[in-house]
Amino acid sequence: ALAPNGCPVSARAAAFNPFEGAYMQAPADYLRWAREEEPVFYSPQLGYWVVTRYEDVKAVFRDNILFSPSVALEKITPASPEVLQVLQGYGFAMNRTMVNEDEPDHMARRRLLMDAFLPERLIGFEPMVRQLARQTMDRFVDRGRADLVADMFYEIPLTIALKFLGVPDEGAEQLRQFAVAHTLNTWGRPTPEEQIEIAHNVGRFWQTAQRILDAMRAQPDGEGWMYDTIRQHLAHPDVVPESYLRSMMMAILAAAHETTSNATANAFHTLLSHRSAWEALCANPALIPNAVEECLRVAGSIIAWRRVATADAVVGGVPIPQGGKLLLVQASANFDPRHFENPDEVDVYRESAVEHLTFGYGAHQCMGKNIGRMQMRVFIEEFVRRLPHMRLAPGQTMEYLSNTSFRGPAALWVEWDPARNPERLAH
Ligand code: HEM
Questions:
Q1: Contact 374/389 with Cβ under 8 angstroms?
Q2: Is residue 4 a part of any domain in this protein?
Q3: pLDDT at residue 427, as a whole number
Q4: Which residue among 177, 185, 186, 312 is the one 20 to 30 A from 134 at the CA level?
Q5: 220 located within any domain
Q6: Does residue 280 have a pLDDT over 90?
Q7: Residues with beta carbon inside 6 Å of ligand 1?
Q8: In this structure, are strands 318-320 and 313-315 parallel, antiparallel, or unpaired?
């Protein structure tokens, strides 16, 4: 078989399938061969060029003109006519948001919508996260066992995200089901039957988002990023158009919390399975901010992101024809030994940890990164203080949704002896 640039496809490139379990279980391991031998390869199963080395991934992120993000939210598995019909039945009209918008529109919009992310606007959120974390831990600290995802890491980032956006609480269970559907619809390869069911949930998600948006527009003086957005739409409809409002309302309801929930669960899994790293944090909590970066490097919650070549291009020496789609595997780039020394080691002292590409890079770099980081830091601070003796429950296998991009375990069971809780020993 030949790739679109006329080069032969190697056997391993032909076998690359991000929808099989091994990719999600350990994406960097799954692509070790590529980093070493074929760092940019064409995947016939995906129809994408897969980019696996740090410098190449960063270079593509850096040039968002030659490598447009317009495909970032495209269905990676094309919709069948039946699926399209289901989506149309719900009036589904997902269009450009921020993350998949081209210049010059993107920068104009990003500038207008930046204020809510400024440090002074975020200051109040840290005490809120800490209070929620403490209250939530109170519920299980004497129990000796918890699924950290169900008991804590799902709900708090959701609560914070809704507060940040100004969106009234819609019920966690419903939104969780919607977010799963959105992930599988955008980045998954479900069977044709599954796709129909997923399309119904995506359609319901779309309608729920529109209903919330319309309610907010009726009272446009509220507080939160989506209210800022509504007001900027009224003031600058050319820069923040109606279609942006509608699309973003749905996209951000998933992006603002799933990413953080998953990153937190991945971080605790990483630290607890590298006991010396966890113990270093228990002994010296000042290391936690850097540990957060190291966890985002080794186990980020977005592991691959997409671009499309707007003209003939070259990536890592490989010619990519105009229109070629690229899957930038940040989870692989973050393990590139050309950039990170001993990349397989979890090193909470690593000075370059913050150079990971989990938040993307360049003009579209994640606007919410400091909200995500802050929550991860607060959670780790609270756990090393109150449950330093906590361990991963033995014998559990991590389960992940099958998709190219969003990675976090469905559950994370931990256990500890409540009699040894420091707060009991202190009394
Ligand atoms: C964009 C990851 C949390 C809002 C992105 C991108 C990634 C990402 C990979 C695309 C970057 C690129 O194309 O270069 C993450 C991760 C998070 C996280 C790993 C948590 C650990 C959040 C939160 C919010 C948020 C909490 C909002 C409250 C956004 C927005 C963009 C974005 C608005 C679009 C920026 C643009 O295109 O200019 N994020 N994100 N993210 N993220 Fe996040």
A1: no
A2: no
A3: 61
A4: 177
A5: yes
A6: yes
A7: 61, 69, 98-99, 110, 161, 164, 255-256, 259-260, 263, 300-302, 305, 358-362, 364-368, 371-372
A8: antiparallel
Alpha carbon of 51 to those of 314, 341, 414, 415: distances in Å? 12, 20, 35, 39
Please identify which residue in the block is written with the tokens 């228990």: 282
Give the three-state DSSP class for 317.
coil
298 touches 350 (CB < 8 A): no
3-state secondary structure of 390: coil
ipTM for the predicted complex comes to: 0.99
Three-state secondary-structure class, residue 313: strand
Model confidence pLDDT, tens digit, residues 82-99: 999 999 999 999 999 999
Integer Cα distance of 197 and 200 in angstroms: 5
Strand, helix or coil at 107? helix
340 CA to middle of ligand 1, Å? 23
> What residue numbers bound the domain in which 357 lies?
11-425
Q: Number of structural domains, the chain?
A: 1
**β 391-392/318-320 pair status:** unpaired
The model's pLDDT over 133-183, given as tens digits with 9 standing for 90+, comes to 999 999 999 999 999 999 999 999 999 999 999 998 877 788 889 999 999
And the tokens for 121? 């606007």
Strand partners, 43: 48
48-51 and 67-68 as β-strands: parallel, antiparallel, unpaired?
unpaired
In the β-sheet with 413-415, what is the strand arrangement from edge to edge?
145-147, 413-415, 391-392
For residues 245 and 212, is the Cβ–Cβ distance under 8 A?
no
Rg value, the chain, Cα: 22
Residue 150 sits in a domain whose CATH number is: 1.10.630.10
Asked whether the beta carbons of 216 and 222 are under 8 A apart, the reply is yes
In a domain, 6, yes or no: no
Residue 1 resides in a domain? no
Find out whether 253 and 178 touch, Cβ atoms under 8 Å.
yes
DSSP structure string for 58-86: HHHHH-TTTEE-TTTTS-SSPPPHHHHHH
CA distance 149 to 158: 12
State mean pLDDT over 54-58.
98
| CA of residue 421 to ligand 1 center, whole Å | 36
Q: How far apart are CA 303 and CA 357, in angstroms?
A: 9
Ligand 1 atom, smallest distance to 373 CA = 21
